[in-house]
Amino acid sequence: MNFQPRAKLNPTLKRTLLMCAATLLPSSLPAQNTPLVYPVAHKVEQVDAYFGTHVADPYRWMENVDAPEVKTWVDAENTVTHAWLGQVPQREAMRKRLMQLTDYERFSAPTKQGNRFFYSHNTGLQNQAVLFWQEGLDGTPHVLIDPNTLSADGTVALNGLSITDDGTLMAYALADAGSDWVKWHVRDITTGKDLPDVVEWSKFSGAAWLNDKSGFFYEGYERPSQIVKDGITRESSLKAANYFHKIYFHKLGTPQSEDPLVFERPDDKELNVGASVTHDGHYLVIYQTRGTSPNNQITILNLKDKSVAPLKLVTTEEAVFDPIDNDGSFFWFRTTLEAPNGKVIGVDLAHPARADWKIIIPESKNPLDSVSMLADTLIAQYLSDAQSHIELWNRQDHTHRTLDLPAIGTAAGFGGKRTDTETFFTFTNFTTPATVYRLDLGTTTTTDLPTAHTTLYRQPQLAYDPTRFETKQVFFPSKDGTRVPIFLTYKKGLKLDGQNPTLLYGYGGFNISLQPQFAPAYVLWMEMGGVYAQATLRGGGEYGEQWHQAGMKLHKQNVFDDFIGAAEWLIANKYTSTPRLAIQGGSNGGLLVGACELQRPDLFGAAIAQVGVMDMLRFDKFTIGWAWKADYGSPSENEAEFHAIYKYSPLHNIKPGTAYPPTLITTADHDDRVFPAHSFKYAATLQAASAGPNPILIRIETRAGHGGGMPLSKRVELTTDEYAFLARTLHMHFDLP
């Protein structure tokens, strides 16, 4: 489940789990027609009332995830799952092949601060990427921080960083075991030594430095309460709901206890906040969002003149207002105000009335995903049928042209300052790992666009031939006739005989766009004859805010209809058939998989639900779950939304005696975003209700969270298990290269 405030320093958490493939001759597999014996999960008499509807919750005790009885059940379930997966004879061969495909150098696009460039690098099989810096593009690389040295098992990850404008200091956040809670440290970049400053109990936060480097702004909540149980004191950080997000300022050299509160909204506990300092150091831009809604309020503080009252520029969450840059008091914003696909406007803080706002880039047929400004050029990143489309706009006369990209795929980056004349971006698709390009914007004038010149900067060396595979995008009609896209990637020469093992992946929510991207597992899947299908479902942001709204709250069933429609289209067009078709999704996508396998158990040959939101009547009771009401609705506060949610909530739509498809549920014991009890309760209920021999398994990772920062070793083991599960349940047979 994605949740980050709308601050530039808090990038949206995208899907980070690698995917793996498995191969096995069916003749070598154990018999699958003997039902498994699952651990006993006792039931309690718990019934809740929602607008006159009484709903039983017999596994409520599983919400006490630290209780000994829950741990006993978790250990027993893991024993059953690993024993079943351990019967796949070639599991180790699959793991080794995944490691081979993963073993390639990976670089991020470099960013410039002062005369220094910063980038991350993974030699291939490192658990976490290492952060480097160098003087100029030709300078000697220096290790700035190596997260692999922070813990023996690789479960301490770099979660966020912010570097001062001159490139001399870095604030960096560390997350332990995948938690959303982070601890901020400060490092002297030249010496590589940490300062004494430490900031704890920060969450969904960036770090915004003052230009004089005296300190930085950050976000967090009140420290969680302590719970004493069995003589042991524990923080309630994994389960307790997080309300009243606040902005603080940390002055270097002072203890956190002296950090002043800069901004809060005590009138509204469900607003989350974020802050960024403008490049000129003159203003602090404060974002206020309601949960996961993309819309936000804007308040601007004058950092140079404290006597100036805060300017409440936008006071309701009616649209997106994303600041791009400023020239003195003149600001450029990307906004969806009266433009669902987005546009760019200019606002002068000296004349902030809406009547004085100017349109700089008008709304297009394509959604405007993000905008940056370099060399006085607005670099507008659009989505065209879920693919990147980049336009360069002169900020003075608004002339523009398209930037050529290498192929169909996803471009990201284009960071920098308005005065910079070069930037970097990455390009990727389903068969191409992230390749780094340098964009030289050359000399600009006030009337002409710069001469943009793109050169290859860093390209990975691969352990396979990408020309053996192809990707195409097709469109199919959903249940209500809506035209829905789907990307299909497979080995060239594919036969449409209905016998291809096919993995259908989806998300469909929170305005998140699924674009073409690379994972070694896609290659492995295709090497074994598989088809990878990625559906562009309503609820995402691929076609703008209208597409998003068509898959949220009372319209959430559209998302499931789209996914089911994709499966039916794949079968009707003989890409696959039900026994060879698997579905997969994580977080909100785990909800997608759960809802669809319950609504159409006859349609799928297997299902993998990763860290899913399964108890849709209680999702808002834990950690940041309340924030998802912006997308899902409120089951306990709004009767119409309750009835809509109750109809698809996976936990509440399991029917005893139904033959559900083979199912693998995955979660983690430290997931403090989607509380693991969602998956616990769903697994226990599905195991008790399912008829027939199909396995219903749950795999619970330890010392891991929602997926962010998971070390490579754990990702490889997880995905190897997932695809060993599919190899056995889909009766796959092929040879590994």
Commentary on this structure:
Among the domains are: 317 residues, Alpha/Beta hydrolase fold, catalytic domain (Rossmann fold, 3-Layer(aba) Sandwich), CATH 3.40.50; 98 residues. It has 737 residues and is of the alpha+beta class. The radius of gyration is 25 Å and the shape is globular. Helix 2 crosses helix 10. The strands form 9 sheets. An 8-stranded mixed sheet has the order 33-34-36-35-37-38-39-40, sandwiched between helices. Helices cover 16% and strands 34% of the residues. It has 10 helices and 40 strands.
Keyword list:
737 residues, Rossmann fold, eight-stranded mixed sheet, seven-stranded antiparallel sheet, 34% strand, disordered N terminus
Fold blueprint:
Layout: E1 47-50, E2 53-56, H1 68-85, H2 91-102, E3 106-107, E4 111-113, E5 116-122, E6 130-135, E7 142-145, E8 156-163, E9 169-176, E10 181-188, E11 193-209, E12 215-220, E13 226-229, E14 232-235, E15 246-251, E16 261-263, E17 271-277, E18 283-290, E19 296-302, E20 311-314, E21 321-327, E22 330-335, E23 343-348, E24 358-361, E25 368-374, E26 377-384, E27 387-394, E28 400-403, E29 410-413, E30 422-429, E31 432-440, E32 453-458, E33 469-477, E34 483-491, E35 502-505, H3 520-527, E36 531-535, H4 545-549, H5 557-572, E37 581-586, H6 588-599, E38 606-610, H7 629-632, H8 639-648, E39 663-668, H9 677-689, E40 696-701, H10 712-729
Parallel strand pairs: 35-36, 35-37, 37-38, 38-39, 39-40
Antiparallel strand pairs: 1-2, 3-5, 4-5, 5-6, 6-7, 8-9, 9-10, 10-11, 11-12, 12-15, 13-14, 15-16, 17-18, 18-19, 19-20, 21-22, 22-23, 23-24, 25-26, 26-27, 27-28, 29-30, 30-31, 31-32, 33-34, 34-36
